[in-house]
Amino acid sequence: MNNWYNINMRTTGIYIHIPFCKQACSYCDFYFETSLKHRDGFTEKLIEEIYHYGQSAFAEMQVSTIYFGGGTPSRLHSEEWTKIMSALHKNFTISPNAECTAEVNPEDITSKYLSGLYDSGINRLSIGIQSFMPSILEFMNRAHGSEAAERALLHISNSKFDNWTADLIYGNPNQSLEEFKADVYKLLEFKPKHISAYSLTVEPNTRLGSWVRKKKVVPQDDENVANQQQWLSDYLESQGFSHYEVSNFAKPGFESVHNSSYWNHVNYLGLGPSAHSFMWEENSTSAKRWKNVSLLRDYMELNPTKIIQYEEHLSLKTLAEERIMTGLRTKKGLTIGELSDRYNYNIGEKQHAYVKLLIQNGYISGEDGGIALTKKGLLIADTIILELISRQEDVPVLNKQH
Amino acid sequence: MEHIRNFCIIAHIDHGKSTLADRLLERTGSITEREMQSQVLDDMDLERERGITIKSHAIKMSYKANDGKEYVLNLIDTPGHVDFAYEVSRALKACEGAILVVDAAQGVEAQTISNLYQAIEQDLEIIPVLNKIDLPGADVEAAAQQIMDLIGCEREEILPVSGKTGMGVEDLLEAIVARVPAPKGDPNKPLKALIFDSVFNTYRGSVVYVRIMDGVLHQGDEILFMAVDQEYDADEIGYLKLKPEPCKKLSAGEVGYIIGSVKTLEDTKVGDTVTTKKNGATEPIAGYKEVKPMVFSGIYPTDSEDFESLRAALEKLQLNDASLQFVPETSAALGFGFRAGFLGMLHMEIIQERLEREFDMNIITTVPNVEYEIIDRNGKELTVDNPSEMPDAGNVEKVFEPYIKAQIITPAEYIGAIMKLCQERRGVYRNTMYLDSSRVDITYELPLAEVVFDFYDKLKSNTRGYASLDYEVIGYRPGNMVRLDILLNGDPVDALSSIVHRDKAYEWGKKLCAKLKELIPRQMYEVAVQAAIGNKVIARDTIRALRKDVIAKCYGGDITRKRKLLEKQKEGKKRMKQVGAVEIPQEAFLAVLSMNND
User: Residue B263 and residue A33: Cα distance in Å, rounded?
Assistant: First the structure.
């Protein structure tokens, strides 16, 4: 038995999807509902699901993080937060120092709402700012304007929340580097401990996707987006942030534990419509990932035992490839030792040669059996991950003993 | 013999030839409803999908006419593309009549015209038919007028039909009986049977489709294939119904098949004459031609381990397609593969598609070219069908390239557009002839190399589809040809070399570099794309290094999505070829073909 076993089998995170949104952002392809049709009774239904999993293997594990995402979790009322959090505490063993994050949107924030959240047990906020520029916010069809964003940040600064993060989106059509810099400078005035900055992704099933197809919107040139990302990384590092994942920056000790869990294959239980769950299986030689039904209507109607829409079984090899995929996106990278001990995955000769080539060309910094992408490498992480995985030779799989 | 009618159908793509054929089969009871599927005669999936006939087919029907007599109707289906012009001419020779099918909504279109003129030249009785008269867009009178102008017939000779509903099919059958002459031919003369197609059957060998022109063939006769001078026994002969129906003898005027343990299609060539070994004919039927490949290209397995499977697949295709030729070759860029010869571009595309679909092969084909004759500085003569075999410019004394005589029939308003196109293609103008007040026949002599790529498509698009093209090879002429090489980061990629005319090399090279820049994805390093003649670089482009390729979000559910994408990309990578440090997608090897489409 190696020490990965404990990590795989004893710890979990919980993700809760709150699908309500005031209005639809043009770029978003997460599951959300702007209609209030099935709003009534949602909290009760969610609590029913919490009780259902209170009887499962997850209840045997230590819960290290809870994360409310969406949609827009700040559409929930304060009483609902209290009910949901207390149901979680009744059904799971939650670590005393667990990181409990709620995504909030500027237009929902009042000082009263924040203190209600805090009292329910939430100790970290993630606020969707995206930009302070009115024209960009309008293009994104955000429900808030630039004053609302600043006002909300002011409320947060004055609240009991010390640990909070803000989302920014860059690489917007026609957005100049100077405009993006202005967004970053403005945000830093509020002294966030963490920033998630995403380059705009054009998802096909969104309004943005259709604009691009119809050539109403021309996406930014990769070169410009790369310049923005590079500037961001250099600047935030100069301000004391660590660029610890492709899109994430944190002051020391404020890295998101919950998101890091995804990248490290820590178990997670997803509750609410369209939420994904991940669990190692017996002996930690395989795992499964499953997804709840997407539609709120189905979620409300179905019994918790029936709400799984699909499930996939993941072999150690698949898991290893996922780990390479997520690990190489992080500053920490991964170690050859972890790949072999945890996933029984051995880096082959062709892969070694490729890593060596990347080190020579400044895409990877490799020390003591570790592989981590440099800043230059992070910019083309997808290419490197694909190349590295494709170079795996077929090696006989040995039976792993614990 | 007076109760036999041999005929074919001439039609433009989509004008409903196969559907009409289906109706004829139904109405004559040659096929039961249970056996019925659309386009019965088109065997290959590819034929059904593209709506084209690639091989010739034949089927025998029985029809009791209004005169109370029983007639044998042999429908001989023909291919409809210039690549297969020779097969068409042989199939027409086996007939006495042709049904000209015109879509009443579309009117006469050019593709039919070349075949129609061939049919008229061979003295076939033409029965004009207006199809799809029940369609809302049908303009029966306009289409009828076009037909009258085209073949000079009377209005009442044109039959209205609907292949869809079967309306008018009865009248058509009567017209076939009444108007198509019974076959001529003398059963008492020595046997002369014309091969108009042959197909390969794994168990029986080559199945030869013949029209008996003179004499009688008996089952068991010793037979001789005259052009190839090979003897066989006619083990089985019979009629071509939906399933073959064996018989004891085939007489002058009849259409049928011969099976004689012929192991290879090589011996049963379209256009050849079959006669009896004893008391056989002394002269074959006129018009036999050895069909030679005109276009050559490399075919390589994407995965070099599939070389043997590719060979097996090509061999299987060749069993049924004697015009396909191939020999092994190697390329520094692509490894082991084959150099294959085709009748034309459509033929090449069909072979490619069949390899991919029917044999599940992943292949890369290289830039097609024609065959050149070269005299080097030492006076040595070479035949070159592969750019890599072409000596360096300094060692070439003279190059000869094949020329064709192209006959283009077009409405007069497109004369200017056609002459411009031919001029661009180094054509030599020969002649214009007015067929009537609005239609002309233009003759040009053109280098075959200028025609094989996209000439036909260009001709069609420049004339809204109205022009038709027919051509024959007229021999070799001197041409100032050079080998244009492509270098990626300084390394020549042999599979991207092409043979081009010196005057066009500069522009060609520039366009090719630009196209490759578009097709080769950005790599982790900058890639220089250069075109060179010998040591002289004549064009250059740069593929900038990849700057950004990373998705923004990778959380809970994104992981599955991202992994699935990775798996797909991994598959896609198998279709790339590594040349030096540069990865090249398959399409790049055919960049030349898509160059003029922009």
Answer: 69
Cβ neighbours of residue A262 under 8 Å, at least 6 residues apart?
A13, A268, A278, A326, B554, B555, B556, B559
Exposed/middle/buried for residue A371 (C-beta within 10 Å: 0-12, 13-18, 19+): buried
Spatial contact of B413 and B334, defined as CB atoms under 8 Å apart: no
B538: CB partners within 8 A, 6+ apart? B484, B505, B506, B509, B510, B531, B532
Q: Pick from B1, B67, B473, B548: which is nearest to B255 by CA?
A: B1
In sign, the C-alpha dihedral spanning B386, B388, B389, B391 is: positive
Chain A closest CA to B521's CA: distance in Å? 11
Shortest CB distance from A15 goes to which of B554, B556, B566?
Answer: B556
pLDDT score for B596: 60
φ, ψ for residue B44 (rounded to 5)?
A: -80, 145
Which pLDDT value is given to residue A399? Answer: 45
Extended beta strands in B66-131, E state = 70-77, 97-103, 125-131
User: A50-59, B123-132, B309-318, B434-443: lowest mean pLDDT where?
Assistant: B434-443
SS3 assignment for B276-344 = ECCCCCCCCCCCCCCCCCCEEEEEEECCHHHHHHHHHHHHHHHHCCCCCEEEEEEECCCEEEEEEEECC
> Tens digit of pLDDT per residue, chain A (402 long)?
467 877 788 999 999 999 999 999 999 998 889 988 889 999 999 999 999 999 999 999 999 999 999 899 999 999 999 999 999 999 999 999 999 999 999 999 999 999 999 999 999 999 999 999 999 999 999 999 999 999 999 999 999 999 999 999 999 999 999 999 999 999 999 999 999 999 999 999 999 999 999 999 999 998 999 999 999 999 999 999 999 999 999 999 999 999 999 999 999 999 999 999 999 997 888 999 999 999 999 999 999 889 999 999 999 999 999 999 999 999 999 999 999 999 999 999 999 999 998 999 899 997 777 899 999 999 999 999 999 999 887 554 444 444
Which residues lie below 8 Å from residue A210, measured CB to CB, with a gap of 6+? none
Closest-CA distance of chain B to residue A245, Å: 10
Best mutation site among A325, A363, A378, A388 for testing chain B: the one with the most B CBs within 10 Å?
Answer: A325
Look up residue A293 and give its two tokens.
């039904």
Domain ranges of chain A: 2-261, 324-390
Asked if A268's CB is within 8 angstroms of B556's CB, the reply is yes
Binding-site residues on chain A for chain B (CB distance < 8 A): 15, 198-201, 222-223, 225-226, 229, 246-247, 259, 262-263, 268, 270, 274-276, 278, 289, 291, 312, 318, 321-322, 325-326, 329, 361, 363, 378-383, 385-386, 389-390
For B247-281, give the DSSP string. Answer: ESEEETT-EEEEE-----GGGS-TT-EEEESTT--
The verdict on a CB contact (< 8 Å) between B548 and A363 is no
Q: In this predicted structure, what is the pLDDT of residue B38?
A: 58
Q: Closest CB to A199: pick one of B525, B552, B570.
A: B552
Beta bridge partners of B317: none
A389 with B550: Cβ contact below 8 A? no
CA–CA dist B173, B178 (Å, integer): 9
Fold for A2-261, please state it.
Answer: TIM Barrel (3.20.20)
Name which of A15, A326, A379 is nearest B547 (Cβ-Cβ). A379
For chain B, counts of helices (H) and of strands (E): 14, 33
Could you tell me the fold of the domain covering A324-390?
Arc Repressor Mutant, subunit A (1.10.10)
Q: Using CB atoms, which residue from A200, A223, A381 is nearest to B550?
A: A381
